[in-house]
Design brief:
About 45% of the residues lie in helices and about 10% in strands. The chain is of the alpha/beta class and about 210 residues long. A 5-stranded mixed β-sheet has the order 1-2-3-4-5, with helices on both faces. Helix 1 runs parallel beside helix 2 (about 85-105) and helix 1 (about 30-50) packs across helix 8 (about 190-205). The longest helix has 23 residues, at about 30-50.
């Protein structure tokens, strides 16, 4: 904020899949801390500058892995039952839901919110966290440049990315956020409100206050 008078685009693309459970100093599971609480906190801290810079955009890089996870705030952080891929999917589901909630709550702010799935790209993260998956799907994996295409398009294009908000994208097309009846059933207004409240409490900031 001290260095830049404008914030035109905020891109949340930090993430990792950990095979073993780790926590931050405050006790939050690390995947959730980095990919749910952290982006919520950073967006909240920059939101007023984003609003003053409107039209501006917040882009969250999620994953198709979220299709396998339901929205379950009580069990968002895994404990003794920890499995890295499952924890990652739960965090990614929360990201996509939060993207919709930001858009619903601040639709008139001039800030556009987009979440997206970049496809499976051959990145160091995939090589480290999913070596078997990478070995089996290697010829089908995208280059990092291919994975970044929709991200750049959402940040720069003056068409749909500038006139829509709260959507989930893949290959420059809007996609549904559910493929399984079970995940759709869990996506209730009460559970969505519970997620927002949980993030406010864990980030220590309420962007709507």
């Amino acid at each position: 904020l001290d260095a830049q008078p404008r914030v035109d685009t905020l891109l949340h693309n930090a993430g990792a899949l950990y095979p073993e459970r780790h926590t931050t100093p405050d006790g939050t599971e690390l995947t959730v801390a980095a990919q749910v609480v952290g982006p919520f906190l950073l967006t909240s801290l920059l939101f007023e500058r984003l609003r003053l810079s409107a039209p501006s955009r917040v882009i969250t890089v999620s994953s198709g892995g979220m299709y396998a996870a339901s929205l379950d705030v009580e069990n968002l952080e895994m404990g003794a039952d920890y499995r890295g891929t499952e924890q990652y999917a739960r965090a990614k589901r929360a990201q996509v839901t939060l993207n919709e909630l930001w858009a619903e709550r601040f639709g008139g702010s001039g800030v556009r919110f987009h979440a997206m799935h970049p496809g499976w790209a051959d990145t160091p993260g995939v090589a480290t966290s999913l070596p078997t998956f990478r070995k089996l799907t290697g010829p089908l994996l995208r280059s990092p440049e291919q994975g970044a295409d929709t991200i750049v398009w959402l940040a720069a294009d003056d068409g749909e990315p500038a006139t829509t908000t709260g959507r989930f994208w893949h290959d420059r097309r809007v996609r549904g956020t559910h493929r399984l009846p079970a995940t759709r059933r869990c996506d209730t207004p009460a559970e969505r409100e519970r997620l927002w409240t949980w993030c406010v409490e864990h980030a220590g900031i309420d962007p709507g206050a």
